[in-house]
Every structure is written in C-alpha cells, then in structure tokens.
Amino acid sequence: MPSDPLVARHVLEFPGGYTRTTGPVIGRFLTELRARRLVGVRTAEGRVLVPPLEYDPATGDPVTGEYVEVGPAGTVTASAWVREPRAAHPLDRPFAWALIRLDGADTALVHAVDAGDPRAVPPGTRVWPVWKDAPTGQITDIAYFAPEVTKIVSPVRAEYRLRAGGALRVFLEGVARGVFLGGRCARCDQVYVPYRTSCPECGGRIGEPVELPGTGVITTFAINNLPDPRAPEVPFVSAYVLLDGADIPMIALIGDVPAHEVRQGMRVRAVWVPEEERTPSMANVRWFAPTGEPDMELS
Amino acid sequence: MNRCAVIGVGQTRYTTKRRDVSIAGLVREAALRALEDAGLTFKDIDAVVVGKAPDLFEGVMMPESYLADALGAAGKPVTRVHTAGSVGGSTALVGASLIQGGVHDRVLVVAFEKQSESNATWALSTHLPFSASLVVGAGGYFAPHIREYMRRSGAPAHIGTLVAVKDRLNALKNPYAHLRIPGIDQAMVESTPMLWEPIRYLETCPSSDGACALVLASEDKVTGTPAWVHGAAMRSEPIFRAGRDTVSPQAGKDCAADVYRQAGVCDPRRDIDVAEVYVPFSWYEPMWLENLGFAAEGEGWKLTESGATALDGDIPWNASGGVLSSNPIGASGLIRFAEAALQVRGMAGEHQVDGARLALGHAYGGGAQFFAMWIVGRERP
Ligand SMILES: [Zn+2]
C-alpha cells in the first residue's frame, strides 16, 4: 500500500516511566500485595476500602491506620466483556473487566477475569486471584482473577497393540484377496461370517473356512443423519447384509444408491476398493451396492 | 429362599448436568434418600451393590472402589455389577439375591450415570483396527431392528409418536423426571428430525445425570412400607448368533417366562397392574409388549394405539415417564425397578396407578441381549 506522506507515527513515552510516590496507605497495600496478601483500609465510619484510599471519599477525612486482610476470593458485582484484547491488556485472550468485591471489603476493585466465555461471569460469580510468578508490588501482581474450580479435565488414554491372530487373521487374509470367508458349525450346520472357530449358539467346532460370494440381501437398515467425523458423510445407510450362503448378517455401508431408495429385501454386492489399495481390513469393502436383481421375499 | 422386600427408594432429580456435585455426591444423595425412606442409616447396612454402565463412559475405572466412602461402605462387602444398559436391573437382582440367599439382612443398592461427564456414543463406538468405521451409537444400532418390527407387524408409522407423547405426559407428573415438555403432542414429535431413520429426535431418550438407590431387607428386618419381591430373573444371549431374533430376543422371552412363573403370573396383561419397562426408543414399547407376552406377536402396537398402556389404561406402562423421559444410563434399569416398588407401596405420588398390587420392573442392555426383570407386590408372597 502506498504510504501517505502526510501521515506520521508519533509516540509519547516518558523514558523509563514516571516514578510515583505511593504515600503510606497505597504503599502498604502494594507491599502486602507483593507478599501475596490483600488488605483494605478501614475508614473512620468503619467501612473497608479495597483498594485502599488515603482519604475517605464519603467524608473527606483521612482513613484510619487499621488495615484489614480481605479476600483472597471475591464476588463479581458487574463486568464488561473484552472480545479483542489490546496489547496493554493483562490477557491476550478474550476476558472480562470486572468489579470484584473481595470478601470482607465494602468496595469493589477493578480487575481482569479469565472466564473463557461472557456467560461465565454474571454478577455473583465467585472469583479467586491468580498470582504472577514474581510479585513486585503492583496491582498486576495479580495476573488476573479466575472463577472457582468446579471441574477438571481428566485425560484417559489406553494404548493397545492388537494382533489379528487365529480366525480373524484367516478372515482378513480373505478380505485382502477380495473374498469373504465364513465357516460352518459341524454340529448345528449354521454358516458364520466372519470366519470363527467355534459356534456361539451350540459351542460346536467350526472347521475349514468356506468362501462366500460377495452378494447378499439387505435384511434391515438405518438411515443415519447424525454427522460424526469418524463416520461416512450423512445421510448414510448402515445395513444388515445377509451374504448368500451365510446364516448371520454383517453390518455394512450401502452405497451407489440414494438413501431413501434402499429397501429391505434389496439384493446387493460388495464393491471392493481397487486391488492396489487393498489392505487386510474391512476398509477394503467400499460399500455394498444394489445388483439390480428383483428384491427377495423376507420371512 | 428367604423373602426379600424393598423398604427404601431414593432418586435424584434427573437433569442434563449436575454441576454442583461430584459422582460421589450424586450417588450419596440417592443413597441417603433411600435410607431416609427406610428410616435407617448407613450403620444399618450389611453390604452395598453398585451398578454402572461401562467405565469408559465417564472414564472412572472401577468407580465402586472410589464410591465406598460416599456409600458408607468402608469395611463392608461392596459388589460391582455391569451388564450394559440393563445394569440397574441386574444390580437390584444381585442385591436381592444376597437377601434371598440368607447372606445379608439389609443391602443398599445404588446405580448411577453422570452423562454430562461422558460421551456414551464415543464410548460405544471405539473403532477396532481392521473393522469398517460406521459410527452409529445406540440409536444407529437399534434403528434397523425397529424398522424390521414395523415391516413384520405392519404397524402404522404414528405408533412411535404415540409412545413418545404418552411417556412425556406421564413425566409431567413425576417430580424426578428429566424431560418436561408441556404441551407435547404428536405434531411436535413428528416435527422433529429423523436422527437414525426410522427414529425421530423426540422418539429417543435424553442424556441425564442421576442416581437411584434401594434399600432391600429380609423379612425380619422390614421397616416402613415394603414392596415384596415375588420374582426375579436374568437372562442373556450372544449378540452374534445365527438365527437370533433381534426384534423379539429369546433371552427376553425366557426371562419373562421365568419371572412370571415365580410370581404366579399366567396372563401378564391381566395379572400385572403396572409395568416399568426399559423403552429408550419409543418403538420399543410395542416391541416389548410382544416380547413380554402382554400382546400376541404383531399385536403390540394395537395395545399402544388403544391407549391400554396410558396412565388411565388397563395396563399402564411407564407411569413415571420411563427411560424416554430420564436416562442416566447405569441407573435407568434400577429406576424401573424402583418405580415398580413405589407403585405397589402406593408411594408414586401423582403418577400412582390406583390400587396397584403387582408391578413389573424390566431392563435390557447391550444389543438387546441382556435382560433383568422383577415382579414386586404389595402382599407378602
Ligand atoms: Zn452350532
């Protein structure tokens, strides 16, 4: 952007900053603050001013020499939300300027409240000071106030190493070749897919795997409209597909057809990903798609 | 077998978020209310049974250990029960068995869930390697079975909305219920989106924080108003089994037959006065009406449609508002059992079914593969 020769930057900053004498009352407050204590001063009328003042604004009289420990917690009496903090602000994220009446005080002090959300600082909110690491005797020794701790984040993570062994390995090796492997129970004659070595119905042994065709029938299904980052794009159809020759359905995604045209009894066939993309995983099956054959009668 | 009675019931007000209490504070609230109802204190309790859905829901592993202090259980036997969604029911049955078997005289039974600290859909959809990613949660799992019920029975599409309205109207009479939707009607239910077609938003249960507790006692130790256990049964079946009927599971039929036999029930619709049945999706009312023998196969929806299961019908189902109105998962089954007890004790308040003498409490879980039921009565069996 071309600069305008008639626009100039002008900074007014006293070198090193002004020095300021605190006087005994403010000095006591800041000295206590450096020791991470909060004090107010009592007026002749008995009120406790926080932050302290040298002269009681109500009467013009000097305040008494009595310092009263207050806080450290306080109650928000009013607040204003700062959506876009500026460079000189105490926080670099959105925060609230709040009037905080510390416990034991009769007046409120202004400070920042790190609340995350403007709805989190209604009048009445209880807040506690969060101190700077190395206090020096400034009001900014309190980095900010924060609402009371009412919940914590508790990370839970368990990491496993899963080895596909036994029956699952046999099944996945089939899937890697583009075939579904099942097995027939020697006792009750039912055909299970994926392949397994014992029958969940009768406990009978299941022998050698048998190849099942990639075709079958949708017995029933749901149309999922709730989005989830881990799931296919909605709406998607999750269906029970009974492969031809199997006695138990598999849950599978249905594709190549609008969700509302899926029917119970519809004939479908597995659509496999291209051979070069295949891994020993069910991700090899992109989805099941209608074959175009007439629907099957369901019992 | 020794006789067993429910002598105390405690519930928390079910709600989306109980931010004011820890899990321990939540279960203690229910436990203290149950003890107060029984006129007892923790000192009077011999053993504690804690029920809870999968630990992965809140990520607190073996919460029963952590909860022992809150339940006054230090130095006492504590048992944890977990049978997925049916766990609340199974927990009551494990507690009852400790009394019936003569092991203990007074048992505190507690179940809970703090869904606001958890994500059930995430916990139920942990994708194992080598499988396809089809995150569907509980609704996605049950929707196909509801569709199949609709096909087989030929039930008209509005039956689900009838149940959704009926149970929420009942909830307005239950001070503990979570969902309170004044003016709820069919049009409101039908205007909500299909989440997992054929299940609409208002045809599903809410996510609740809550706990429920019972005090069970042997015959000698009964105090206050007892609800006597007339029958108790659990059954389960494998989720992957050739020929498994997912619409009307055999385990549910077997469990019902067992509990009816124990209680001397020949015709459940005639002999039972009120039923609290685990209906997390509205269509499960007609499905369970058939599975539990209240109606013939394919006829359950007609019972719903006729109004028989309404609060003023001849066999009220879920007078409390049911799971459709409050669902702290681990506690949901125990709430069914507790509400059945409240009915026969005549202590159900505004949703009391007049003259209820025999009540069924029912819970199911997993892929409709775990079942727990009890029948409680006003009279000693
Ligand atoms: Zn077999």
UniProtKB/TrEMBL annotation, chain A:
Residues 173-205 form the ChsH2 rubredoxin-like zinc ribbon domain. Signal peptide: none annotated. Coiled coil: none annotated. It comes from Nonomuraea pusilla. Gene3D superfamilies: 6.10.30.10. This is DNA-binding protein. Residues 67-131, 210-273 form the ChsH2 C-terminal OB-fold domain. It comes from the Bacteria.
TrEMBL record, chain B:
It comes from the Bacteria. CDD domains: SCP-x_thiolase. Residues 244-377 form the Thiolase C-terminal domain. The keyword Coiled coil does not apply. Gene3D superfamilies: 3.40.47.10. Keywords: Transferase. This is Acetyl-CoA C-acetyltransferase. GO terms for molecular function: acyltransferase activity, transferring groups other than amino-acyl groups. The keyword Transferase applies. It comes from Nonomuraea pusilla.
